[in-house]
Amino acid sequence: MPENIDNLSINTIRFLAVDAVQKANCGHPGMPMGCAPIVHSLFTKFMKYNPSNPKWLNRDRFVLSAGHGSMLLYSILHLCGFDISLDDLKKFRQWDSITPGHPEYGLTPGVETTTGPLGQGFANAVGMAIAQEHLASMFNKDDYKILDHYIYGICSDGDLMEGISHEAASLAGHLKLAKLIFFYDDNSITIDGSTDLSYSEDTEKRFESYGWQVLNIDDVNDLPQIEKSVAAAQMETRKPTLIITKTHIGFGSPNKQDTSGIHGSALGEEEVKLTKQNLGWNYDELFFIPDEVKAKFDDVVNNVKKYEDNWNNLFEEYKKEFPQDAELFLNLMSGNTGDDWKSSLPVFTDYSEKVATRSASGKVLNSIAPKLPALIGGSADLAPSNNTFLKEFEIFSAENRSGRNFHFGIREHGMGGILNGIAAYGGIIPYGGTFLVFSDYMRPSIRLAALSGFKVIYVFTHDSIGLGEDGPTHQPVEHVVALRAIPGLLVLRPGDANETVKAWEVALEHKGGPVALILTRQKLSVINRESYADAEGLKQGAYILKDTNGKPDIIIMASGSEVGLSLEAAERLDTVGIKTRVVSFPSMELFERQDKAYKEKVLPSKVKIKLSVEAGVTGNWPKYTGRKGANISIESFGASAPVNVIFEKYGFSVDNIVKTSKNLLNKLTDECC
Ligand SMILES: Cc1ncc(C[n+]2csc(CCOP(=O)(O)OP(=O)(O)O)c2C)c(N)n1
Q1: Which of 3, 187, 303, 556 sits in a 20 to 30 Å window from 514, CA-based?
Q2: Is the CB of 462 under 6 A from ligand 1?
Q3: 668 falls in which pLDDT band (50, 70, 90)?
């Protein structure tokens, strides 16, 4: 291979990755060695960014969906002047470094999203492309394309095998997201060996049938081919582009190239030497960057800065001509949605009414949406059931980018990844709905939203056996507890319509992570807030809804549809002289944030008898009900039957709550005497 500055730069990227993996003695050198020419071309010849301001709003995004190749990303970001030092590269995978094993959003400048679980980054990029299209439709004017950039990415065999990428690619083609340009690192190797073992479809035809433009590069080291392909991808205005690129995993390694052995292990010192020799890398120093390469990247950095300067000038003019749009744009992009929407929150005052919390949620959404332009979302084909449709607004489509209603299709996992990408892009508070039982289909994306701190709101309806006749396949039993187990996810299960209003308020104001709203299919009584405490208490996670004079004999705590039942049971217990407090407990996470005094006030330790009532597995409830308490829960799957029957049969009845309470009190009396 002739030695020129491009090849030298590409080898620099390769050997920064190789040296970092070797130093850490773990990591994935093969992918960076194969794909170095791709990032080199993108970052030096095509992409617009400002390393000194990695959050510049109109930057091109780059998503390394094959996150195991993280050193590829860190190396190119370092060379392109992002705030990642050579020392940071030397601390690859070490405690407290900004160069972790897989790229993490918010930790490393230039890392647009957290990747590693294969397929997620691909779906995130689709979300970013959607976000750009929507915001561009809101803010771009004929002479002012203030959002006008590309979303580039690299995906691997693993990414394209995973179901989530199928879902996201299908939707991206349908929506004609032409700003999306993905390279497919087609190296025919995965961990188990050759892709022949498990992957034989025609990826090109698959993507063509999704509605993508598909281009081919038969040798990744042929830089003009890369450049021609990117230019062709940019020219295509109606289709996303997949550039299937033949690469060699571990390119240059005499003994390991094209083998799975180089996917996820350091080369070993001897093989590093041989590889350097083989590629004509004549430097002994590790983490070495030749002067010519430094000079070249200095030029690149100087050159790319003009893009933001130009954009700043454009935006100054925009501000003058469209001051209100400019203000709204900046507010949205900085996550400032103001308070205006709060005055539109509904209040449910007809206490004779019965309202499913999913319906209350739909009412909230439709009441506030006109004043909250950041709020856009949809459902995985359950909009009428999830009540997620914004009636005054149109549908987002290939023809109408300003629509605020998404039809994700029956693609929960894709939806989860896309919502994360929209949140990562900024300017939008995305929400997505499905039945709670299908939260499992998108759980990996929910976990990543929590890990990344993305503000995504999930509208999970049909939240228990209370959905009735659809039976155990559709009745979530373990899901609320399973969601509570995800660190950083706020789970809210409101007990009536007014708590649902407060739950949305909390969700919209919540910072630092996703929120899951757990809502009923069945109608619930609207709790009389003149007789009982205000729903504002939801904000503390748990609050005294109904109290007694003096020390309670028993505290019943419940969430969601079980709150109303518990209130009725408490009234009955009161009539027989059992002083009963009811604590509405919509969110364990919020309650855990309260101070000790508040927790003690709501759940005094001197009250020994505490009963939880929640139509799902017991999970964490014993933490609150204590040694002498009890839990009315479900430890099996549900059953197909009308809601009243199934609730009764599973013990979620006023009678059973009363009976269980009395038994607990009797047991305590027996123990005492
Ligand atoms: C969802 C998910 N499953 C499994 C893994 C573990 N894993 C990491 S890379 C990989 C496959 C490697 O093959 P490929 O995607 O072709 O990457 P390459 O070997 O070419 O670097 C697997 C199974 C993962 N990261 N994510």
Answers
A1: 556
A2: no
A3: confident
